[in-house]
Each structure stands twice: as structure tokens, then as C-alpha cells.
Design goal:
This protein is α+β, with helices and mostly antiparallel strands.
Length: 820
């Protein structure tokens, strides 16, 4: 068989060259480069290469013919007859059957792999760009635009039960418009083959067929569109899920899998944006309430309280006018006690009265202790006479009792939503608390000392945002007010919705506390009085004054008012704590994303360097071995060759560490007996250290409860060997090495804790924070990758590695879940 006949039968694009001329080609090469066979034959091997590739390939070709060592395969860009470049990989080998300098070149088309890489990288870029946005709408818009920039069509759907609604079509084709026209009230969820569960993806390899089946039309109608499609579900916190669908050409399952990961990352970004929006909303609410609180809490005269309440409430809640209505002594009418109205109508002067027997918003809010708005279809009794268009009446509640009504109105027809009602309710509670304090102050004017103390208490209360100082402040104040000897408090257990007691708490005190907490009222028993801490109709705990003196009813009311103020402060403290946790969570999330991006880039760089260094190392090893066989060196020559070999071997180990570090950790978990693995790792470390390891005494203690776990034996052995090598190297003149395994907990999960402790000099304090960072080492010949590899392996198993703090030497703690 001639070389030409052989090449023609090869399944890959191929040609034979002799010298610098092509002597045989096959049809697959003709199809790959777009030239006729006659145009290629007898031409130069560089004729279908771009200008910038010709010199590189020509140098490699001449070097190979001259006997130099060249890689057998490499990437090359071919120049197609239509002017486009074709990414391909060429494998070159000598072909003696065609001549002494004949070469056989096999070429594969790499364009599809480039397309896949481009799409996957594009999805990573889209996720990175979306994470930087601060609103949910911007996150989805940026993600869609980034994906469209990859040449794909994107449509966003919202899942509403068993219906799908199109919310953003982007640059989608006519199919989306046909679906919108066919199902104006929402398409059935069954149009997608799923739809997928949250966090999964679907790859559609025959998109025209799927579209034809959905619309019940011939497949040929859709063959001019995109041939493939992908679908992923994006979880939306606090609402319906979103379906992200994408279509284009040259898609595959790997691209669809990356698209599914994009959906997960978008869900995390939407969660972060929602938490940020909630934190901003809470901050705005807190600012409004603090503004109102500063105005009314410090006022101790009833007229001053209601005047400031009307003025500040209208400003803080962005309403045109505000009225404060208080009941008469017989609870038959509501009287206008204060108003903030730039254009009041006749009959709405301060002192005007309105019967409680008439079902108006204000009367209903007062009687039922609940907010009402004009959307309920009722007259307001205050704003109807001069034509206000929307109104809201909120009761001034104190311990479940209405002290009056705060009525707000807006001329522009604004609809009061849930947030407006909630803010108005908070404001009304602040006004009610201030009003009650003012009444108590007026009724007990003769007790100037106690009231001065309460005023100071209120000021201190408004400046504290932590639960413990607030309770200490409240306990001290109420103990002094009621003449008690001591105080204590109990908080509710959020999981049980009941109070949490200490074991030594007396049963009668438990029963009284539970009654006060459940029924939200003051409970008195022999030797103590129990006060509930109520805010916004929520019981936040109880405060107990032990051994009080005999007190009057007005003092009890005063004590309840103080407890209510404390409860409001505790509620504000909880809001502040939630806000702080939200910011901390956002900061941790941002730090984790930055660290992941940095480590990914570092891994790619390490892998690239390692692969480029391996080939020269192979040449060095072969050359040194050949020189030692040919020259049989002695003296200094032998010493120098040994040094070259040792240094090349050390560099090869460094390359191995780089590859270990850059390689993804994907453990194959299986039940594993820990003790044999530990002993095997110790033997492996001893062999690498050499005779010096025999000077070290090794003790192994494996607890039965931690003797078996699920792990990847190869990866775990590598991690243990790295740690044991460090331990042996720290004791060159001998010492004690202890390896122990016991039960422990890792984030409330049972785990095995492996302790590796040596009696060496220990780790310098200044290096503790950096020892797990890649390329950080305190050794003269170390690579700085050993502990970084350990950390990646352990965390890949769902575990954690940390540095212990022994009295002497060094200790590393590896915690691995007992089951996953």
C-alpha cells in the first residue's frame, strides 16, 4: 500500500510531507482547509497557515528533521480558503515508508471546543457582572445582556403555579411572540420538559422539534431558528421562581451544565439583593421612628406630646395632615387634641368632638384597637368634611389598650400600603408610650424625684441598642420605682414560643411569668411582681421585681409604661442586630466570592506553569542520565552531575505540587478504616524523609468511635503525608510525633478529628495567619504548597483544617464528617 493510499484511509485529516513539501493528502484535510487536493500537493507545509503562525511551525519542522526533540502534538491555527481561521491540533510523527525525512501529520478540528470554552467563560463573566448589581431587576438585566453578548437568545419566565408568564424577552425570536399571543394569560408550565427543579438544568438538543410540539405546527417551520436550547430555574427569595431559557447553535450538555450553575449564582445574587433591600428598608423605618421618638418621647406634658406627635407624624410619614384624637372620660366621643393641617376645614378645630357610636375609621380603630384605611369603604369622621381622598386611622395602643387615635390623610389619592400601615403603627405606639408617660408624670407630679429618674431612664434607653444593657437599665429603674430588693428577667425561646427558665426557678414564679407572658398583663404574687415586655403586640419576655413594697395602681401603670418603653427599645435593638447580621453576611459573601476568583486564577496560572516546566525537566533528566552512562564521570564532574540531577528532581517535585494544587478536588467517598490509612501515610512519609525519620518516635491512638469515616483514601493519604512530612522535617535530630483520632463536632455535625502533633520548635506566631496560603513557606527549599493542598483536600471532603495551640511544638487538627 502506497503512502497516499494509507493516508486516504485514515479517519482524521492527514497529509505526508517530505522535506518542506506535501506529498500526500486525504479528503478530510481538503474539507478542513477548503482547498482542492491539487492545490495542496507539492505545496509548502506552511501554505495554509496564517502569517503569524508560519515562522513558528517552520522552526519546529526544521528542528524535528534535524533530530532535535519536539513535542509530538500541539495546537495550530489553519487558514481556511474562505479567509477564516480554524483552530486545530496536529500530531506529527516520522513516516519512514514515504522517505527518510517524511512526516505524517494528523489534524483534528478544535473549533467546537473553543466555542464551549467561550460560552462557559461567558457564563462565569455574566455571573460576576450580575453579582455586582444591587437590585433584583438589574441583576436579571445584566445577566441577560451578558448572555446575549455570547450570541445567544434569552427569555425570562416567571413561574406562577402551573402557568408561565414572559417577563423579559431580550432579543428572542418570533417564537416568544407566538407563545405570548397563543396564551395571553400565561403559558402552561408543561411547555418545558420539566420545568426543572430549582438548581438544575435541561439541555434541549432538538429545539425546533420541541417548539413544533408546543405549538402543534410542522417542524419545518422552526428549522431556520436556533437548533439547541437550555433551561435553568433561578430561585427568587420570597416569591415565585424564574425560568431562564436560552437558545443558540453548537450547544451541548457541558454548556447546559454551566448554564445551570449560572442559574444558581443568579439565585444567590437575588437573595443578596433582597437582603440588602430589606436592610435598607429597616434602616429607613428605624430612622423615621427615631425621628418621631426624639420629638415625642422626651415630652412630659400631654398637650406638648400630642402637638409634637401630630407635627412629626405628618412629616415623618409623608402625609398632608395629621390629627391626634383622644377619648373623653366616659369613652363616648373622640376629641381633636392636636392637628397638623395647612388648610383645615371648619368644625375641625382643636376641641371638636365626634361620637364613638358612629362607624367611622377613627371610631373603629379606637374600639377594635386595629388600623383602618379609607379603602375599607368607611367615612373617616375627621377628613370627610373637607374632602381628603385617602385616610388612615391607627390606634394609640399601650399594653393592648387604646389611648386615642392617630389619623393621617393625603390629598393626592395615595394608597396606604402594608409598609405605611406598619410605620404608622410603630409611630402610634411611640406616641401612645409618650402620651402614657406624660399622663403618669402629670398624675405623679408630687413625686419629682421618681419622675426625674424616669426621664433619665428614657434618655439612657434611647441611646442603647443591646439587649443586656437595656435589661440592666430597666431592672434597676423598676426596682427603684417599686421599692424592690432585686430583679431578674426571662426571655422567650423562639423555637418553643414559651419562656426559657433556669433549672432552679421556683414553680410559682414560673407559673406567674408564663401567665404574664401569655396573657400580656401584670401579675402579682407574694414577694414579686411580674411585668410583661410588650411591643407591637409582641411579648418579648418578662421582667420580675422581687420583694417590692406596697405600691399604688398608678405606680403599677408607671411600671408597665417603663416595661413597654423597654420592650420598644428591645425591638429596636433586635432590628439593629438583624441589620448588623445582614451587613456581616453580605461582607462574608463578598469576601468569599473575591477569594474564590483569586484562587481560581491562581490555580489556572499554576497549572500552566507546571505543564510548561515538565517538558524541559524531561530533557534534563534524560541528558543527565545519558551523560552519566557515556562519560562515567568522577570527581567534580560526577558531583556537578549529581547536583544537577538533585535540583531537577526537586524542581520536578515542585511541579508535582503545583499540579496537585491546581487539580480540582473531587473526592470519591467510600467507607474507610482510618488506622491502616494513618499507618500507611506514616510509612510513606518515613520513606521520603529517609534515615533521619528513624530518630523520631511515633505514637498512634485511634478512638473506636472515629475509626471509620467516608472519605477518598488517595486524597486523604496525600493530605496526611504532607502534614507528617512537615512534622518529621521539624525534628531532624529526633523527637515525638503523636497522631490521634477522636470524635468532635464541626458546625453541629459529628466528625472525626485527626490531631498530628510534633515536639519540634513550633510555628512562629507571625506565620500562623499565612501558613495555608499558597507559596508561603518558612523552609529554604519548600514550595509553600503542601499545606495549601491539605486545605483544599480537607475542605473538598466538607471538613476543616486548623492549627492547634499546644504548649510546645506544632499541632494540626483535621476535622472530617463521619458521614456525608
Amino acid at each position: 500500500m502506497t503512502p497516499g493510499e494509507l493516508v486516504a484511509q485514515l479517519p482524521l485529516a492527514a497529509f505526508v510531507s517530505e522535506g518542506d513539501r506535501i506529498t500526500a493528502v486525504n479528503q478530510r484535510l481538503v474539507e478542513l482547509v477548503g482547498y482542492e487536493a491539487g492545490e495542496i500537493l507539492e505545496g509548502s507545509i506552511t501554505q495554509f497557515l496564517p502569517e503569524d503562525e508560519r515562522e513558528r511551525i517552520w522552526r519546529r519542522h526544521r528542528a524535528r528533521l534535524s533530530g532535535q526533540k519536539e513535542p509530538p502534538d500541539y495546537l495550530v491555527r489553519l487558514l481556511h480558503s474562505n479567509g477564516q481561521t480554524v483552530a486545530s491540533r496536529v500530531r506529527v510523527s516520522f513516516f519512514p515508508a514515504a522517505g527518510p525525512e517524511a512526516l505524517l501529520c494528523l489534524l483534528t478540528d478544535e473549533r467546537e471546543r473553543d466555542r464551549t470554552t467561550q460560552l462557559i467563560q461567558g457564563f462565569v463573566d455574566a455571573a460576576t457582572a450580575a453579582v455586582r448589581q444591587t437590585t433584583q431587576a438589574e441583576i436579571l438585566r445584566v445577566a441577560r445582556e451578558q448572555v446575549e453578548a455570547l450570541g445567544l437568545s434569552v427569555t425570562t419566565w416567571i413561574v406562577d403555579g402551573d402557568r408561565l408568564h414572559i417577563v423579559d424577552t431580550g432579543k428572542a425570536g418570533p417564537f416568544v411572540e407566538v407563545v405570548r399571543a397563543r396564551w395571553p394569560e400565561g403559558a402552561p408550565a408543561s411547555i418545558f420538559p420539566g420545568p426543572p427543579n430549582v438548581g438544575t438544568h435541561i439541555f434541549i438538543d432538538d429545539l425546533p422539534g420541541v417548539r413544533a410540539r408546543i405549538l402543534g405546527e410542522p417542524r419545518a417551520k422552526f428549522e431556520s431558528g436556533a437548533p439547541q436550547g437550555m433551561v435553568t430555574t433561578v430561585p427568587v427569595p420570597g416569591g415565585n421562581s424564574l425560568i431562564f431559557s436560552c437558545s443558540g447553535d453548537r450547544l451541548d450538555e457541558s454548556v447546559a451544565s454551566a448554564f445551570g450553575l449560572l442559574g444558581k449564582q443568579l439565585g444567590a445574587a437575588l437573595e443578596g439583593a433582597l437582603r440588602l433591600e430589606e436592610a435598607n428598608q429597616r434602616t429607613a423605618e428605624l430612622s423615621l421612628l427615631l425621628e418621631l421618638g426624639r420629638e415625642v418621647v422626651g415630652a412630659l406634658d400631654e398637650d406638648e406630646v400630642v402637638s409634637k406627635a401630630a407635627r412629626t407624624a405628618a412629616l415623618s410619614l409623608r402625609c398632608d395632615c395629621a390629627y391626634v384624637l383622644l377619648p373623653d372620660a366616659h369613652n363616648t366621643v373622640l376629641r381633636v387634641a392636636a392637628r397638623e393641617d395647612p388648610a383645615p376645614s371648619p368644625g375641625l378645630e382643636v376641641g371638636s368632638e365626634f361620637p364613638l357610636s358612629v362607624d367611622s375609621l377613627s371610631a373603629l380603630a379606637y374600639r377594635h384597637c386595629a388600623p383602618y384605611t379609607s379603602s375599607d369603604g368607611l367615612r373617616t369622621s375627621v377628613t370627610d368634611p373637607h374632602g381628603k381622598r385617602t385616610t388612615m386611622a391607627v390606634p394609640l395602643l399601650s399594653h393592648g389598650q387604646a389611648l386615642g387615635v392617630l389619623t393621617l390623610a393625603d390629598n393626592a389619592g395615595r394608597e396606604f400600603d402594608t409598609q405605611d400601615i406598619r410605620l404608622a403603627t410603630h409611630a402610634a405606639q411611640l406616641v401612645a408610650s409618650a402620651l402614657l408617660n406624660a399622663r403618669l408624670y402629670a398624675a405623679q407630679r408630687t413625686r419629682a424625684k421618681e419622675m426625674a429618674f424616669l426621664s433619665d431612664f428614657a434618655l439612657q434607653l434611647s441611646g442603647s441598642l443591646e439587649r443586656k444593657p437595656l435589661l440592666e437599665l430597666a431592672g434597676t429603674a423598676l426596682t427603684r420605682l417599686l421599692g424592690g430588693e432585686s430583679w431578674l428577667s426571662f426571655a422567650p425561646d423562639p423555637r418553643l414560643h414559651a419562656l426559657r427558665f433556669e433549672d432552679k426557678t421556683p414553680s410559682d414564679l414560673r407559673a406567674a411569668s408564663e401567665t404574664a407572658f401569655r396573657e400580656r398583663k401584670l401579675v402579682e404574687l407574694e414577694g414579686a411582681v411580674v411585668l410583661p415586655l410588650l411591643a407591637r403586640d409582641e411579648a418579648l419576655g418578662v421582667l420580675i421585681i422581687c420583694k417590692p413594697r406596697r405600691y399604688q395602681a398608678d405606680e403599677a401603670n408607671q411600671a408597665l409604661a417603663v416595661a413597654g418603653a423597654v420592650a420598644l427599645a428591645l425591638l429596636s435593638a433586635r432590628l439593629f442586630e438583624d441589620l448588623r447580621h445582614s451587613y456581616a453576611a453580605l461582607e462574608r459573601t463578598q469576601a468569599e466570592l473575591i477569594d474564590r476568583e483569586r484562587m481560581a486564577a491562581l490555580g489556572e496560572l499554576s497549572a500552566s506553569i507546571a505543564h510548561e516546566v515538565r517538558n524541559p525537566l524531561g530533557v534534563i533528566f534524560n541528558s543527565v542520565g545519558t551523560l552519566q552512562r557515556l562519560l562515567r564521570p568522577q570527581g567534580d564532574v560526577a558531583l556537578l552531575l549529581d547536583i544537577v540531577g538533585e535540583e531537577a528532581d526537586r524542581l520536578n517535585r515542585m511541579v508535582g505540587d503545583l499540579l496537585d494544587y491546581s487539580r480540582p478536588v473531587q473526592p470519591a467517598l467510600e467507607p474507610l478504616s482510618l488506622e491502616p490509612l494513618v499507618k500507611e501515610a506514616i510509612s510513606g512519609a518515613r520513606r521520603q524523609i529517609g534515615p533521619a525519620a528513624e530518630l523520631v518516635q511515633v505514637e498512634v491512638h485511634i478512638a473506636k468511635s472515629a475509626a471509620t469515616l467516608r472519605a477518598d483514601a488517595r486524597l486523604l493519604r496525600q493530605a496526611l503525608v504532607n502534614l507528617l512530612l512537615n512534622a518529621f522535617q521539624s525534628m531532624p535530630r529526633g523527637g515525638l510525633l503523636e497522631v490521634r483520632a477522636t470524635n468532635a463536632m464541626l458546625e453541629q455535625t459529628a466528625c472525626a478529628e485527626i490531631s498530628i502533633r510534633d515536639s519540634g520548635p513550633g510555628i512562629p506566631p507571625e506565620a500562623l495567619s499565612r501558613i495555608f496560603q499558597p507559596f508561603f513557606t518558612t523552609k529554604a527549599t519548600g514550595t509553600g504548597l503542601g499545606l495549601a493542598v491539605v486545605r483544599r483536600i480537607v475542605e473538598g471532603h466538607g471538613g476543616a483544617v486548623a492549627v492547634g495551640r499546644p504548649a510546645s511544638g506544632a499541632e494540626f487538627l483535621v476535622r472530617l464528617p463521619l458521614s456525608r
